[in-house]
Amino acid sequence: MDVSIARDFWSALEPLHAVTYFAPECLAANKEVGLRGFWMGYFGSRGAPLGPVPAAVIEASFYGFHPARVRRAVPDAWGFASPASILAVRGVAAAKALRRAAPDIDGVAAEAVPRLRAVVEAADGAGRVLFAANRDLDPPEDPVEALWQLATALREHRGDGHVAVLTAEGLNGLECNVLACAVSGTPGELLRFSRGWSEEEWDEASAALAARGLVDGESATDAGRTLKAEIERRTDALAAPPYQSLDDPAALHRLLAPVARAVAENGDIPFPNPIGLPRPAG
């Protein structure tokens, strides 16, 4: 199987998942359930499937965030809103946002959900904490909410594998952000600020990568670009096997792609953004 199918599905599923970070319906739901501020909403909502875990679990599984940023929100978040109460609203809010962005999404969801559910059921949860936690949530009855939940589970499946590759390459959470910016040309300030690192810490990580021959100033070297490409290839390879359960993966991708484009283009998701989602081509 061509492992690039995993990247194709990431491009189709990531915009659907990402409304949970940017759409006003989702931000409002976090506030209404009791979470205080954007970052408590982010960590609380994304981490809710794990249960009321300590900050260290969020740090390890989310990767890339400064521990202090996490610890300002967790475990306090669970005192303001229980994971169960967060789970009761996050998918509902995401479905509202998706329907607003893509009015034809109900028909797409009705057709896509059974196929995506087969992909999720085929995926191995071993070593994939965020994926396994999302996979085991009760399936929503609402088709668009179910579409969002399945997209989220598969997104976290890919992300868990990506973290495994990064750690295998000896890149800590800060260094992987620095390398990503150096390769893509994304302003370092965007990721540094969103992930909570100081300018001094960012510069120290840049120096460490330079010592490995991976960056030169704010730009990646050939070695750095080669390493990043290999990381992405291995991430695709780890994410691809569940899609073998599909009789026609390309057909499902064609079904999802217009909805993903509508969501990406409706203005809620900023470009560039900290999650690395590119602006739709064309």
UniProtKB/TrEMBL annotation:
<dbReference type="InterPro" id="IPR054058">
    <property type="entry name" value="HTH_67"/>
</dbReference>
<protein>
    <recommendedName>
        <fullName>SalK</fullName>
    </recommendedName>
</protein>
<dbReference type="Pfam" id="PF21863">
    <property type="entry name" value="HTH_67"/>
</dbReference>
